[in-house]
């Protein structure tokens, strides 16, 4: 039995593929000093107690990049389930095509609109690699 239990805590992170009218997806580069620094990720973050993943994303998109959206504009696409050394990440990935504002790096991160077929040129966290094909197929 113990062989199938990792003993790691499960961390719920909500992530969003914001899609522009050209079919490009916004990636953000994790700032220096953070875990996985320098890697390109989908905007999002940890779901706080009492929040739904959708509410978390609305908060994170506003805080991180100054983008506003609404719950009906967040469509579930797929999820990542990946073990890091100290936790197991469960990360639903939503797609959002309807949003307000112009993405601005509010936390010092670099931002880039990237076509899904080019995403493999941007080093991403290991949990994200399996998600790219879903975006290629969708867009
Ligand atoms: N937002 C986001 N996080 C991701 C992705 N892929 C991936 O492995 N993660 C991981 C990195 C972090 O361990 C966790 C997200 O946490 P976070 O961004 O809210 O927190 P953080 O590590 O910056 O730490 P904190 O200072 O905010 O507490 O999920 C992704 O595509 N987007």
From TrEMBL:
GO molecular function: 8-oxo-7,8-dihydrodeoxyguanosine triphosphate pyrophosphatase activity; 8-oxo-7,8-dihydroguanosine triphosphate pyrophosphatase activity; 8-oxo-dGDP phosphatase activity; 8-oxo-GDP phosphatase activity; metal ion binding
Catalyzed reactions: 8-oxo-GTP + H2O = 8-oxo-GMP + diphosphate + H(+); 8-oxo-dGTP + H2O = 8-oxo-dGMP + diphosphate + H(+)
Xref: PANTHER family: 8-OXO-DGTP DIPHOSPHATASE, NUDIX HYDROLASE FAMILY PROTEIN
CDD domains named among the record's database cross-references: NUDIX_MutT_NudA_like
Name of protein: 8-oxo-dGTP diphosphatase
Cofactor(s), by name: Mg(2+)
Origin species: Mesorhizobium neociceri
Entry keywords, A to Z: DNA damage, DNA repair, DNA replication, Hydrolase, Magnesium, Metal-binding, Mutator protein
Membership in a protein family: Belongs to the Nudix hydrolase family.
Database matches in Pfam families: NUDIX_4
Residues the record lists as binding Mg(2+): 44, 64
Known EC number: 3.6.1.55
PROSITE patterns: NUDIX, NUDIX_BOX
Upper lineage: Bacteria, Pseudomonadati, Pseudomonadota, Alphaproteobacteria, Hyphomicrobiales
Positions with a binding annotation for 8-oxo-dGTP: 30, 41-44
């Amino acid at each position: 039995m113990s062989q199938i239990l990792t003993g790691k805590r499960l961390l719920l992170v909500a992530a969003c593929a914001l899609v522009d009218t050209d079919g490009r997806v916004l990636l953000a580069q994790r700032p220096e000093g953070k875990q996985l620094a320098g890697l390109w990720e989908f905007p999002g973050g940890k779901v706080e107690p009492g929040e739904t993943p959708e509410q978390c994303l609305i908060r994170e998109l506003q805080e991180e990049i100054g983008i506003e959206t609404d719950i009906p504009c967040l469509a579930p696409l797929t999820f990542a389930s990946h073990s890091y050394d100290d936790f197991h990440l469960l990360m639903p990935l939503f797609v959002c095509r309807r949003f307000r504002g112009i993405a601005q790096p509010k936390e010092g991160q670099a931002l880039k609109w990237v076509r899904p077929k080019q995403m493999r040129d941007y080093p991403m966290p290991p949990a994200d690699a399996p998600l790219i094909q879903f975006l290629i197929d969708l867009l």
